[in-house]
Amino acid sequence: NLDIVIILGIILCFSVLSQCQNVKSFMEKHIVQDNAEIICNDTIRNRNLRNRDGCRPRNTFIHDTNGHRIKGLCANIIESTVIISDMSFKLTDCKMQKGTQRPPNCAYKQKGETGKIHITCERNNPVHFVTFDVSFGVSWSPSILFVVALILLRELLTLVILT
Ligand SMILES: *[C@@H]1O[C@H](CO)[C@@H](O)[C@H](O)[C@H]1NC(C)=O
Protein backbone atom coordinates (compact mmCIF):
# COMPACT_ATOMS: atom_id res chain seq x y z
CA ASN A 1 0.00 0.00 0.00
CA LEU A 2 2.89 2.28 0.64
CA ASP A 3 3.89 1.64 -2.99
CA ILE A 4 0.56 2.99 -4.18
CA VAL A 5 0.95 6.10 -2.06
CA ILE A 6 4.40 6.70 -3.48
CA ILE A 7 3.23 6.15 -7.05
CA LEU A 8 0.28 8.47 -6.53
CA GLY A 9 2.64 11.00 -5.05
CA ILE A 10 4.89 10.83 -8.07
CA ILE A 11 1.97 11.18 -10.49
CA LEU A 12 0.61 14.15 -8.56
CA CYS A 13 4.04 15.70 -8.49
CA PHE A 14 4.41 15.45 -12.26
CA SER A 15 0.96 16.77 -12.98
CA VAL A 16 1.49 19.72 -10.65
CA LEU A 17 4.86 20.33 -12.21
CA SER A 18 3.50 20.28 -15.74
CA GLN A 19 0.74 22.57 -14.52
CA CYS A 20 3.36 25.04 -13.33
CA GLN A 21 5.06 24.76 -16.67
CA ASN A 22 1.82 25.57 -18.47
CA VAL A 23 1.13 28.67 -16.42
CA LYS A 24 4.69 29.82 -16.79
CA SER A 25 4.67 29.33 -20.53
CA PHE A 26 1.29 31.10 -20.81
CA MET A 27 2.75 34.13 -19.02
CA GLU A 28 5.85 34.04 -21.17
CA LYS A 29 3.89 33.84 -24.42
CA HIS A 30 1.01 36.17 -23.68
CA ILE A 31 1.48 38.57 -20.78
CA VAL A 32 3.02 42.03 -21.00
CA GLN A 33 2.71 45.11 -18.81
CA ASP A 34 -0.48 47.17 -18.83
CA ASN A 35 0.88 50.25 -20.51
CA ALA A 36 3.87 48.85 -22.35
CA GLU A 37 4.15 49.71 -26.02
CA ILE A 38 5.76 46.57 -27.33
CA ILE A 39 7.42 45.76 -30.64
CA CYS A 40 6.46 42.23 -31.68
CA ASN A 41 9.79 41.69 -33.44
CA ASP A 42 11.71 42.46 -30.25
CA THR A 43 9.48 40.91 -27.59
CA ILE A 44 9.12 37.62 -29.47
CA ARG A 45 12.87 37.44 -30.04
CA ASN A 46 13.78 38.45 -26.47
CA ARG A 47 11.45 35.84 -25.02
CA ASN A 48 12.63 33.25 -27.51
CA LEU A 49 9.07 32.40 -28.58
CA ARG A 50 9.20 29.96 -31.47
CA ASN A 51 7.63 26.80 -32.73
CA ARG A 52 9.61 23.62 -33.06
CA ASP A 53 9.76 24.04 -36.82
CA GLY A 54 10.39 27.78 -37.05
CA CYS A 55 8.85 31.17 -36.30
CA ARG A 56 5.49 31.32 -34.55
CA PRO A 57 2.97 32.36 -37.22
CA ARG A 58 0.96 34.40 -34.73
CA ASN A 59 1.12 35.49 -31.13
CA THR A 60 -1.21 37.72 -29.16
CA PHE A 61 0.04 39.68 -26.18
CA ILE A 62 -2.36 40.68 -23.41
CA HIS A 63 -1.56 43.88 -21.52
CA ASP A 64 -2.15 42.80 -17.93
CA THR A 65 0.73 43.38 -15.54
CA ASN A 66 1.77 40.06 -13.93
CA GLY A 67 -1.41 38.52 -15.30
CA HIS A 68 -3.36 39.74 -12.26
CA ARG A 69 -6.71 40.27 -13.94
CA ILE A 70 -6.41 37.05 -15.93
CA LYS A 71 -5.59 35.00 -12.87
CA GLY A 72 -8.69 36.50 -11.31
CA LEU A 73 -10.74 35.22 -14.25
CA CYS A 74 -9.47 31.69 -13.65
CA ALA A 75 -10.00 31.71 -9.88
CA ASN A 76 -12.03 28.69 -8.75
CA ILE A 77 -11.96 27.00 -12.14
CA ILE A 78 -10.46 23.57 -11.61
CA GLU A 79 -11.34 21.51 -14.66
CA SER A 80 -10.04 22.60 -18.03
CA THR A 81 -12.56 25.20 -19.26
CA VAL A 82 -12.54 27.83 -21.98
CA ILE A 83 -13.83 31.14 -20.64
CA ILE A 84 -14.57 34.48 -22.28
CA SER A 85 -13.72 37.61 -20.33
CA ASP A 86 -16.52 40.07 -19.54
CA MET A 87 -14.09 42.93 -19.69
CA SER A 88 -11.92 43.98 -22.57
CA PHE A 89 -8.15 43.90 -22.53
CA LYS A 90 -5.61 45.97 -24.39
CA LEU A 91 -3.94 43.56 -26.82
CA THR A 92 -1.04 43.55 -29.25
CA ASP A 93 -1.60 41.06 -32.03
CA CYS A 94 1.50 39.87 -33.90
CA LYS A 95 1.34 38.16 -37.27
CA MET A 96 4.36 36.83 -39.07
CA GLN A 97 5.31 38.67 -42.25
CA LYS A 98 5.45 36.76 -45.52
CA GLY A 99 8.93 35.58 -46.45
CA THR A 100 10.16 35.89 -42.88
CA GLN A 101 13.44 34.19 -41.94
CA ARG A 102 14.08 31.53 -39.37
CA PRO A 103 14.35 32.20 -35.62
CA PRO A 104 15.70 34.32 -34.10
CA ASN A 105 15.06 36.63 -37.09
CA CYS A 106 11.28 36.36 -37.20
CA ALA A 107 9.55 39.46 -38.60
CA TYR A 108 6.05 40.45 -37.53
CA LYS A 109 3.34 42.87 -38.48
CA GLN A 110 1.53 44.17 -35.43
CA LYS A 111 -1.79 45.69 -34.54
CA GLY A 112 -3.07 47.20 -31.30
CA GLU A 113 -6.52 45.91 -30.40
CA THR A 114 -9.01 45.98 -27.56
CA GLY A 115 -11.00 42.87 -26.99
CA LYS A 116 -12.54 40.16 -24.91
CA ILE A 117 -10.29 37.17 -24.60
CA HIS A 118 -11.02 33.46 -24.74
CA ILE A 119 -8.62 31.46 -22.60
CA THR A 120 -8.44 27.99 -21.14
CA CYS A 121 -8.29 27.90 -17.35
CA GLU A 122 -7.18 24.88 -15.37
CA ARG A 123 -6.68 24.54 -11.63
CA ASN A 124 -7.16 28.29 -11.02
CA ASN A 125 -4.72 29.31 -13.71
CA PRO A 126 -4.64 30.35 -17.35
CA VAL A 127 -2.94 27.69 -19.47
CA HIS A 128 -3.89 28.41 -23.08
CA PHE A 129 -4.83 31.45 -25.19
CA VAL A 130 -7.63 30.60 -27.63
CA THR A 131 -8.67 33.80 -29.42
CA PHE A 132 -10.17 37.26 -28.88
CA ASP A 133 -13.22 39.25 -30.05
CA VAL A 134 -12.48 42.80 -31.10
CA SER A 135 -14.52 45.24 -29.03
CA PHE A 136 -15.80 48.35 -30.70
CA GLY A 137 -14.88 51.64 -29.12
CA VAL A 138 -17.50 53.26 -26.90
CA SER A 139 -18.19 55.90 -29.54
CA TRP A 140 -19.53 53.22 -31.90
CA SER A 141 -21.66 51.30 -29.47
CA PRO A 142 -25.01 50.19 -30.95
CA SER A 143 -27.02 52.78 -29.02
CA ILE A 144 -24.96 55.63 -30.46
CA LEU A 145 -25.35 54.22 -33.96
CA PHE A 146 -29.09 54.11 -33.34
CA VAL A 147 -29.16 57.80 -32.35
CA VAL A 148 -27.11 58.69 -35.43
CA ALA A 149 -29.54 56.75 -37.60
CA LEU A 150 -32.50 58.61 -36.05
CA ILE A 151 -30.90 61.99 -36.71
CA LEU A 152 -30.18 61.04 -40.31
CA LEU A 153 -33.72 59.79 -40.76
CA ARG A 154 -35.12 63.07 -39.40
CA GLU A 155 -32.92 65.07 -41.78
CA LEU A 156 -34.10 62.91 -44.64
CA LEU A 157 -37.76 63.33 -43.70
CA THR A 158 -37.35 67.11 -43.39
CA LEU A 159 -35.79 67.12 -46.82
CA VAL A 160 -38.65 65.09 -48.31
CA ILE A 161 -41.30 67.33 -46.71
CA LEU A 162 -39.66 70.57 -47.87
CA THR A 163 -39.30 69.49 -51.49
C1 LIG B 1 9.90 43.99 -37.86
O1 LIG B 1 10.96 43.49 -38.67
C2 LIG B 1 10.72 43.58 -40.08
C3 LIG B 1 11.90 42.92 -40.81
O2 LIG B 1 13.12 43.36 -40.32
C4 LIG B 1 10.55 45.04 -40.47
O3 LIG B 1 10.24 45.13 -41.85
C5 LIG B 1 9.42 45.66 -39.66
O4 LIG B 1 9.29 47.02 -39.94
C6 LIG B 1 9.66 45.45 -38.16
N1 LIG B 1 8.50 45.95 -37.43
C7 LIG B 1 8.60 46.91 -36.51
C8 LIG B 1 7.32 47.36 -35.88
O5 LIG B 1 9.66 47.40 -36.17
UniProtKB/TrEMBL annotation:
<protein>
    <recommendedName>
        <fullName>Ribonuclease A-domain domain-containing protein</fullName>
    </recommendedName>
</protein>
<dbReference type="Pfam" id="PF00074">
    <property type="entry name" value="RnaseA"/>
</dbReference>
<comment type="similarity">
    <text>Belongs to the pancreatic ribonuclease family.</text>
</comment>
<dbReference type="InterPro" id="IPR023412">
    <property type="entry name" value="RNaseA_domain"/>
</dbReference>
<feature type="signal peptide">
    <location>
        <begin position="1"/>
        <end position="20"/>
    </location>
</feature>
<dbReference type="GO" id="GO:0003676">
    <property type="term" value="F:nucleic acid binding"/>
</dbReference>
<feature type="domain" description="Ribonuclease A-domain">
    <location>
        <begin position="19"/>
        <end position="133"/>
    </location>
</feature>
<dbReference type="GO" id="GO:0004540">
    <property type="term" value="F:RNA nuclease activity"/>
</dbReference>
<dbReference type="GO" id="GO:0050830">
    <property type="term" value="P:defense response to Gram-positive bacterium"/>
</dbReference>
<dbReference type="InterPro" id="IPR036816">
    <property type="entry name" value="RNaseA-like_dom_sf"/>
</dbReference>
<keyword id="KW-0732">Signal</keyword>
<dbReference type="InterPro" id="IPR001427">
    <property type="entry name" value="RNaseA"/>
</dbReference>
